[in-house]
Write a structure and sequence with these properties.
By secondary structure, the chain is mostly helical. It has one domain (11-332): ABC transporter involved in vitamin B12 uptake, BtuC (Orthogonal Bundle). 77% of the residues lie in helices and 0% in strands. The protein has 14 helices and no strands. Helix 4 runs antiparallel to helix 7 (178-189), helix 4 runs parallel beside helix 11 (238-260) and helix 13 packs across helix 14 (314-332). The longest helix has 36 residues, at 57-92.
């Protein structure tokens, strides 16, 4: 019986790794403008090989300027949030941790609101990214004492920093015009509707850097999850690797939030669900979070842009889908994948 269980788990593991391919090629056909597989292949080949087609320009515009950037950005954002969530859950040894625990989302929201309201010459993406990292840095330095960063201190510092940036955001919302307020609220909801190649080019280097570091060092999360004393007993410097993972996860999550706004529950539900299915080993959990997170978000976005006949911010749908799913998983699994 044991070999069959191992084989089944292995097949499931590789199936989850391949999900982005299935999600991508099914999602690219979803939308009010109908394009069939033959047309898609012809358009893609013409773009790569440089020959002309008989299709109207609108076909090329829909594929290469609307759907393709949105799908790629959605995959990048979903992967970033999920991998960051898995890393933070390992560092904090808590399955209820999300990438926003250190104040990242509050800082990003303040930065975006500041740009929308008072700094029209400053890119929303760069303002959100800068203030999200500033919030994480403030949290870390506030929690660090005597070259040590206790987990409890990090959590409390994150609460403080989040509260400060939330208050500053509230001040901006009170002071701005109704039009600017609508833009701020829509950005905070989280959406992939403004996807573009420039956003992908701007966010991809930081996404790639953060995720690559977490993938290469993922086995060390298994040691960190045991506690600082246990990590030192096997020769691992816990403070050093906490910094590495916090910086890497924050870079990836900040790049995602900067281009898509605050998309809730992806970084909490996806790694938690995968941990329940595959166990707590970060050697498999991190790559699975990368692939399943990417697939999850673009599938949810398919429904957000086409399921109701009008577009809904994807952050709203992830919360509506993720909350009951998370509640079900908590009810059906006692250990939460930590045992």
């Amino acid at each position: 019986m044991a070999p069959e269980r191992i084989t089944g788990r292995s097949l499931l593991y590789y199936l989850f790794l391949s999900l982005p391919l299935f999600a991508f090629f099914s999602s690219i056909f979803i939308g009010p403008f109908h394009i069939n597989p033959v047309q898609l292949v012809d358009l893609m080949a013409s773009k790569i090989l440089g020959y002309a087609t008989d299709y109207p320009d609108v076909y090329s515009t829909v594929i290469f300027q609307v759907r393709l950037p949105r799908l790629l950005l959605g995959m990048m954002v979903g992967a970033s949030l999920s991998v960051s969530g898995a890393a933070f859950q390992g560092i904090f040894r808590n399955p209820l941790v999300s990438p926003y625990i250190l104040g990242l989302s509050s800082g990003a929201a303040f930065g975006a609101a500041l740009s929308l309201a008072f700094l029209p010459g400053v890119s929303i993406q760069y303002a959100a990214f800068f203030f999200s990292l500033l919030a994480v840095a403030l949290t870390y330095f506030m929690a660090t004492t005597n070259r040590s960063t206790p987990i409890v201190s990090l959590v409390l510092a994150g609460v403080i920093v989040s509260a400060v940036f939330d208050s500053l955001l509230a001040v901006i919302q009170i002071a701005v015009s109704e039009r600017a307020l609508q833009s701020i609220v829509f950005w905070i909801m989280g959406s992939l509707g403004t996807a573009s190649w420039s956003k992908i080019y701007g966010a991809f280097p930081l996404f790639a850097l953060g995720c690559t570091v977490m993938l290469l060092l993922r086995w060390r999360l298994n040691v960190l999850a045991l506690g600082d004393e246990e990590a030192r007993s096997v020769g691992l410097n816990p403070e050093k690797y906490k910094i590495i993972f916090i910086v890497s996860a924050s870079l990836a999550a900040s790049s995602a939030v900067a281009v898509a706004g605050i998309i809730g529950l992806v970084g909490l539900v996806v790694p938690h669900m995968l941990r329940m299915i595959f166990g707590p080993d970060h050697r498999t959990l991190i790559p699975l979070s990368l692939t399943f997170g990417a697939s999850f978000l673009i599938v949810v976005d398919d429904f957000a842009r086409a399921g109701l006949g009008f577009e809904v911010p994807v952050g709203v749908i992830t919360t509506l889908v993720g909350a009951p799913l998370f509640a079900y998983l908590l009810r059906t699994t006692r250990s939460g994948g930590w045992e």
